[in-house]
Inverse folding.
C-alpha cells in the first residue's frame, strides 16, 4: 500500500523534476517503512503547496507534458490517475488528457462511485462514451446509446449519469414521468422540461443527458399515458427535430427547433411486474430452483430480465428500436452500504462531517456504527437514501445543540437513536 501511495503522490505532483520522480520510483523496493512514510509526508506537503500557491492555468501545459512523459517512460496512466491529478484545479480532463477517456477508464471511475453496481457501471460507461463520440465526431455514424436502467430505489440509477454530466460539464435534466401531462394540458409537459433546460444551457442543450425517471409509470393505465408515450417516442427518435418554447415566460411564445440525435436518453424505474414476465419465461419454478434452461435461479427475478421481457412489458415495439442497452441496478447489500459510508468518495457522511467541522466539532464513524446504520437502511429497502435519512435522524439533536465536544457514531449510538 505504501508503494502505491508513493507512486500516486509522485504522479499528482507534476511540478517535480521528472528525473527526481524516476529516482524515487527506483528507490521504492529497497526503502525501509519509515523512509517511505517520510517520502509520503514530503510529497503530500508538496501537493498541498502546489495547489495553494500556483495559478494552475499557467501549469496546464506542464501537467499535459507530465501525463505524456509518465505514459511513455513509466507506464499506463488511468482516467482515475488524471482525475486525482486535476483535483482542486479548474482544469478539464478533456483539456489535459483526452486519451485516457475510454469505456474502460469510465467504468473504472464509475466503479468508485456506483458501489456494488458493476454491470450498471459497465453499461453506463459504454453509453456515455458513445454519447461523447456522437457529440464530438458528428462526421462519423456512431451507434445510438440510449440506456434503460431498472432496479430498486436508492441504488444509484440517477446518480451515475449526474456525476458524469458534472465531470464533463454537460447539461443534465431529470424528467419525472409520474408527473407528466400531455402537450396542451396545464402541468409539466415534455416540452416544458426542454424549455427549462434551454433557458439554462442554451445551445449546449443539444448534448444533454436526460433521464426519464419512473419511466415504468407510463405503462400503467392513465388518461394521458398513451399520448405522452407517443410524444416521447418522437423525441427519442434518432432523426427527430424537437420544437419547444424558447422561454417559459407566459408572454413569450417564440419557438426553437433542435435535433435530438446528440442527446443521451436514459430511462429508469423499478419496473414492478417485469418479474412476472421473467418467471413465466423461465417456468413456474420458485427462486432457488433450476429453470428449464439449466440455470440455477436465485434472488430477485429482476436480474434475469432480458430484452424480450421488456418488449412484452412495453407492448410498444417502437421502443425496442430506440433503447439499445439494458442494465440491472441491484439492491445494495449491507457490506456495500458500509463501504459507501466509510470509504466512498461520495459518502453521505461527508456532508455531516463538514457541518460539524464548520462549528469546530469533530464527527467520526466507527465500523460497527456504519454496520448498524447499513442494517437499518436495508430493513427499510431504501438504499443510500435510507442511509441519509438515518444520519439525519440520529444526529438531529447534536446538529441542533452544537455542543463543543467530539461525536463518535458507534453501534450503541445508532441503536439508542433508532430503537
Amino acid at each position: 500500500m505504501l508503494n502505491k501511495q508513493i507512486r500516486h503522490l509522485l504522479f499528482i505532483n507534476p511540478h517535480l523534476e521528472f528525473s527526481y520522480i524516476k529516482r524515487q520510483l527506483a528507490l521504492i523496493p529497497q526503502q525501509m517503512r519509515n523512509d517511505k512514510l517520510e517520502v509520503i509526508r514530503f510529497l503530500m506537503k508538496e501537493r498541498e503547496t502546489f495547489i495553494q500557491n500556483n495559478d494552475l492555468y499557467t501549469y496546464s501545459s506542464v501537467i499535459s507534458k507530465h501525463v505524456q512523459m509518465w505514459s511513455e517512460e513509466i507506464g499506463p496512466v488511468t482516467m482515475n490517475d488524471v482525475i486525482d491529478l486535476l483535483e482542486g484545479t479548474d482544469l478539464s480532463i478533456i483539456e489535459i488528457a483526452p486519451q485516457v477517456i475510454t469505456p474502460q477508464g469510465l467504468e473504472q471511475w464509475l466503479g468508485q462511485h456506483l458501489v456494488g453496481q458493476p454491470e450498471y457501471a459497465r453499461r453506463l460507461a459504454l453509453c456515455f462514451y458513445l454519447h461523447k463520440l456522437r457529440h464530438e465526431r458528428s462526421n462519423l455514424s456512431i451507434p445510438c446509446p440510449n440506456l434503460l436502467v431498472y432496479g430498486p430505489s436508492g441504488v444509484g440509477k440517477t446518480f451515475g449519469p449526474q456525476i458524469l454530466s458534472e465531470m464533463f460539464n454537460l447539461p443534465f435534466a431529470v424528467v419525472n414521468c409520474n408527473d407528466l401531462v400531455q402537450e396542451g394540458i396545464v402541468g409539466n409537459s415534455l416540452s416544458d422540461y426542454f424549455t427549462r433546460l434551454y433557458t439554462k444551457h442554451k445551445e449546449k442543450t443539444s448534448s444533454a443527458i436526460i433521464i426519464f425517471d419512473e419511466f415504468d409509470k407510463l405503462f400503467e393505465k392513465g388518461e394521458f399515458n398513451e399520448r405522452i408515450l407517443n410524444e416521447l417516442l418522437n423525441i427519442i427518435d434518432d432523426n427527430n427535430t424537437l420544437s419547444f418554447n424558447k422561454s417559459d415566460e407566459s408572454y413569450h411564445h417564440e419557438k426553437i427547433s433542435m435535433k435530438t440525435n446528440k442527446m443521451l436518453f436514459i430511462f429508469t424505474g423499478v419496473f414492478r411486474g417485469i418479474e412476472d414476465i421473467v418467471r413465466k419465461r423461465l417456468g413456474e419454478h420458485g427462486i432457488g430452483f433450476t429453470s428449464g434452461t439449466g440455470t440455477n435461479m436465485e434472488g430477485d427475478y429482476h436480474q434475469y430480465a432480458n430484452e424480450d421481457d421488456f418488449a412484452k412489458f412495453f407492448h410498444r415495439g417502437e421502443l425496442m428500436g430506440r433503447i439499445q442497452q439494458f442494465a440491472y441496478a441491484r439492491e445494495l447489500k449491507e457490506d456495500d452500504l458500509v463501504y459507501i459510508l466509510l470509504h466512498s468518495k461520495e459518502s453521505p457522511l461527508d456532508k455531516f462531517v463538514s457541518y460539524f467541522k464548520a462549528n469546530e466539532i469533530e464527527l467520526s464513524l466507527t465500523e460497527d456504527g456504519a454496520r448498524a446504520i447499513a442494517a437499518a437502511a436495508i430493513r427499510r429497502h431504501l438504499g443510500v437514501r435510507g442511509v441519509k435519512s438515518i444520519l439525519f435522524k440520529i444526529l438531529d439533536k447534536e446538529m441542533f445543540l452544537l455542543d463543543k465536544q467530539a461525536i463518535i457514531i458507534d453501534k450503541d449510538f445508532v441503536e439508542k437513536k433508532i430503537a
